[in-house]
Amino acid sequence: MSDLSGQVLLPVATGRRTLAELRRLLRPQRGRMTVALALLVAGTVAGLVTPPLLGRIVDLASSGASTGAIVLIGAGLVAGALGEAILAGWGVALLAQGAESMLASLRERFVGSALRLPLEQVERAGAGDLTSRVTNDVAAIAEAARSALPEFSRAILTIGLTLAGMAVLDWRFLIAALIAVPVQVYTVRWYTRRAGPLYASQRVAVAAQQHHLLATIDGARTIRAFRIADEHRARVAAKSQEAVDLLLRGVALQTRFYARLHVAEFAGLAAVLSTGFFLVRADAVSIGTATAAALYFHGLFNPINVALALVDDAQVAASGLNRLVGVADLADSATAPPANSAAAPTGAPQAGPAAAPPAVLVSGLGFSYREDRPVLSDIDLTIAPGERVAVVGSTGAGKTTLAKLIAGVHQPTAGSVRVPAGEVVLITQEVHVFAGPLADDLRLARPAATDDEVRAALTAVDALTWVDQLPEGMSTEVGSGGHTVTAAQAQQLAFARLILADPPVAILDEATAEAGSAGARLLERVAATALSGRTAVIVAHRLTQAAAADRIVVLDAGRIVEQGTHQELTARPGPYATLWQAWSDQRPQP
Q1: For residues 171 and 163, what is the distance between their CA atoms, to the nearest angstrom?
Q2: 486, 406 in Cβ contact below 8 A?
Q3: How much is the pLDDT for 385?
Q4: CATH no. for residue 578?
Q5: Do 315 and 243 have their domain in common?
Q6: CB of 123 within 8 A of CB of 202?
Q7: How far is Cα 81 from Cα 392, in angstroms, rounded to an integer?
Q8: Three-state DSSP class for residue 350
Q9: Which residue, 16, 206, 329, 465, shows the most beta carbons closer than 10 Å to its own?
C-alpha cells in the first residue's frame, strides 16, 4: 500500500489471517476462558430470575396475597441480584485476565517483529506508520481486550438466555420480540459495510499525520534555517484536518446507527406489549406473566445496544489488529536467509585447504532505490579477515549505500553480499543514546556484561573519566529526559557498545563526522582501538582515516574506479590523488 507522498506503507493482514492469529493466541488461555464463560452463564441466569419474580409479585398483589408471600419473593430478588453480581464479576475478571494475557503475547510478538523489520522497509513506510501501530492500534486493541470483550460476552449471553426465558413464558412473546431482529440485522450490516473502510482510512490518516509531525519536529532546525515553517505547518495542518474529517464522519455514522437501533427497540416493545394485552384478555396468561415478558424485553435494550455498539469497537480493534499482524507476518517473511548470510557461498574459490575464507565477499553488486536510477553497479570486492578498508568518493558516489548493503540494511537488486565471518555491526554518524541508566545502554550490546567488562569498554574508548564524573556514574540516567551527552560522547558510547558486542566485522559510516575537529581526532583514536583485531569497512569523512587504512576503495558514480594503498594511489594520477591533493591543500601545514 502506498500513499500520495510516495510512502510504501507497511502491509495489513487479511481478516482470515488475523482470525488464525487470534486462535493461536487463544490456545494457551482455553481453560481460563471456559471457566469464565461458565461463570458468566451462571451469573446471567441468576440475573434473569428478576422479571418472573416481579411478575409473580404483580400476580400476588392482584390476588390479595399476604405480605409474607411478597416479602419472600423480595428475598429471592435480593438473592438473585447478589448471585448475579458475584458470579458475573468473577467471570468478567477471569475473561479480562485471559484477554490481557493474549494482549501481552501479541505485544511481545509485535515488538519482536518490529525490531526484525528491514530498516529499508521502515524508512519507506515512514516513522508515522510504525509509531501509529505501536501507539494507537495497540491502545485500541487493549481497550477492546479490557472492557469490550467482557461486556460483549455478557451482552450476548444475556440476549440469548433472555429470549429463551421469554419462550418459556409463552412462545408468542418470543415471536413478538423477534420483530425487532430484521431492523437490527439490517442496521448492523449497513453499519459494518461503511465502518470497516472508514476506520481503516482513519488509521492511515493518523499514521500520515504522525509521519509529517515527526518529520517536522526532527527537522525543526533545518526548517527554520530555510524559512519554510509555513509550508510545513500547512502540510501538518492538512494531514490533521484529514484525520479530523474522517473522525467526524465516524461520529455521524454512529449517530445514524443508534437512531436506527432505537426504531427497532420501540417496534419490538410495542409488539410485546400488544401480545401481552391480547393474551391477558384471552386468559391465556396472567398479568404477572405479561409483565415479566415486557420486563424481559425492556431488559434487552441495554445488552442489545451494548452488543451492537461494541461492533464499533470491534471494527476499530479489528482494523488495528490487522495492521499489527501485517507487521508480524512481514517480519517473519524477512527472517529468511538474506543475501548477506553468514554461510559461505557454494563453490566459492579457495586458494587451498588452509586458506581462510574472506570476511566480506561482494559479487556483481547492483542496487537502486528506484528502478530507473541505479546507485551501485557491478561492484566486486573481497575483504580479508582483519583487513581495514576505507571507502572514499565524492558526495553521491554510493559510499553509504555500499556500507548499508554490507551491513544488511538493504538487500541487493543485483549480485550478492556475503559475510562468511558472521555478525556485522554498523555505526553511523547519527547514533542513539537510549533512555535509562548509562550501563543499561551499553549492555544492549551484551546483556550479560559485568560491571568490570562495561568499565573496560569505557576505558578503551577514553570515556571512563567523564562517565565517573557523572552524578551517579554508570547508573546516571541518559537519553530522553536524562543527562545530556555531547555528540562526541554519544559516539564514544557507540564504540563501547561495539567493543562489548565484539563482532568480527564492523562498518563505520562517517562515524566521526558530527563531532567537530577536536572531537574527530579523539574519535579517530577511539575508532582505531575499537576496530583492533576486526575486519573493518570505513566510509571515510576525513582522508586521514583513508590514509591509515590497509586498502582504499574509490567510488565514483556507483562504481569502483580505483583501489590500493594510500602510497600506491597518491603515487599516480587518479581520482584519489586528486581528492588527497584538494584535501591536503585545505589542511594547515606543520
Answers
A1: 10
A2: no
A3: 92
A4: 3.40.50.300
A5: no
A6: no
A7: 80
A8: coil
A9: 206
Residue range 332-350, pLDDT digits in tens: 655 544 444 444 443 344 4
Residue where the block lists cell 594511489: 569
Q: Which domain holds residue 317?
A: 10-169+310-335
* CATH number for 88: 1.20.1560.10
pLDDT above 90 for 459:
yes
One domain, residues 93 and 208: no
CB of 507 closer than 8 Å to CB of 403: yes
Question: Do residues 272 and 297 make contact, with C-beta atoms less than 8 angstroms apart?
Answer: yes
Quick one: the chain helix, strand, coil %, rounded to 5? Answer: 65, 10, 25
Instruction: Give the torsion sign (CA, 64, 66, 72, 77).
Output: positive
> In angstroms, rounded to a whole number, what is the distance separating the alpha carbons of residues 134 and 320?
10
Listing DSSP states for 183-233 in one string gives: HHHHHHHHHHHHHHHHHHHHHHHHHHHHHHHHHHHHTHHHHHHTT-HHHHH
Rounded Cα distance, 214 and 193, in Å: 33
**What's the rounded Cα separation, in Å, for the pair 99 and 81?**
26
In 3D, which of 433, 566, 570, 409 has the Cα closest to residue 491? 433
In angstroms, the Cα distances linking 366 to 258, 341, 566 are: 58, 17, 26
50 close to 80: Cβ distance less than 8 angstroms: yes
pTM over 0.85: no
- For the stretch 87-125, pLDDT in tens is 888 888 888 888 888 878 877 777 777 777 766 666 666
- pLDDT higher for 287 or 389? 389
Least confident among 131-140, 180-189, 372-381: 131-140
| Separation CA 409–CA 124 (nearest Å) | 12
What letter does residue 359 receive in the DSSP assignment?
S
Name the DSSP letter for residue 449: -
How far apart, in whole angstroms, are the C-alpha atoms of residue 212 and residue 218?
Answer: 10
- Give the CA distances from residue 82 to residues 88, 265, 303, in Å, rounded to whole numbers and listed in that order: 10, 28, 19
Query: Distance between CA 411 and CA 277 in Å, rounded?
Result: 76
Amino acid at 216: T
Residue 466 burial (10 A CB sphere; 0-12, 13-18, 19+): middle
Strands 477-478, 436-437: pairing is: antiparallel
- In this structure, which amino acid lies at residue 536? A
Q: What is the pLDDT of residue 457?
A: 93
Residue 519 has pLDDT above 70, yes or no: no
**What is the DSSP-derived secondary structure letter of residue 157?**
H
* Residues 466 and 500 occupy one common structural domain: yes
Task: Calculate mean pLDDT across residues 415-425.
Answer: 87
